[in-house]
């Protein structure tokens, strides 16, 4: 098994072109922090982008930043923080959940469409991604998008690469729009609500004019003895005071909330972002389930009726993180039955290799979608070099 670590896009293109000539299957990696996500590797060699590094463009006035794919995410975030700016979508850090080490890389944020609690307000990583450079399966360097948001006709390669998990090409550079850091961040915490009432309260708050940037519910036993329902607001301090007061009045039937500010507030949302309440025990399987918020509690209840599970909600109830026993199918039958009944989809984020080889990790595709997916893969990677089978068997 070979290992390649090119230092430039040109070097990477030459390596892929040679691999294309001999049909050498390649595992694409950045910092390796998400290596355990997806179906087990079916590759022969590793191609890492971690040496293709460095910020290539930063224009604070235009609120845009470009960096090569192997650039440490921490380096980009530090640069943005110096000018009071940030990535809008709050990318999850998988290292605690996956027990991995290494540096998160800028390109992997795009490749995996990493997003966190602020997605309900600012969108996903793909919504801020405006430009990419990548090497396709023929060893050709491709540029798509640029430095401004614009309408796209034809195949939108920028959005297509976001969330493709390295199956379509090796990203070498990505460009994101950024936003200003807000003056103040505060969280209302309601205690003691059950899942259904918590989601009801979150829906009422999200439907109000008071602009939440985080909406999560942690059932009892996840870090504290009582359930906590979290609502985050950001902005100028006077605006925050007004909005907290109005939200408290709007939601008074759910109890009297406490207000959490400063580092305690930041720590709460880091925990939600990084799935900290479910990290232990390490042997548990972890599922990421998306559904309509109003169906979240019923979906979880149907799973919990057939197997032991622990869970919490983000995105107002629309994102469920669920931990269960990794034995057998790790709950795949029960969870996918629940998503079929309630609507939604599920991804098995953490489980032993044997389980991930036997159980579809990503939501199974209907036949028409499977044909489209296979066709796109064939167009970008005709020899099937990149991360073969990581998302779907045979793709």
From TrEMBL:
The keyword Transferase does not apply. Residues 1-181 form the FAD-binding PCMH-type domain. Pfam families: FAD_binding_4 (PF01565). Keywords: FAD, Flavoprotein. It comes from the Bacteria. One of its GO terms (molecular function) is FAD binding. The gene is glcE2_1. This is 2-hydroxy-acid oxidase. InterPro entries: FAD-bd_PCMH, FAD-bd_PCMH-like_sf, FAD-bd_PCMH_sub2, FAD-linked_Oxase-like_C, Oxid_FAD_bind_N.
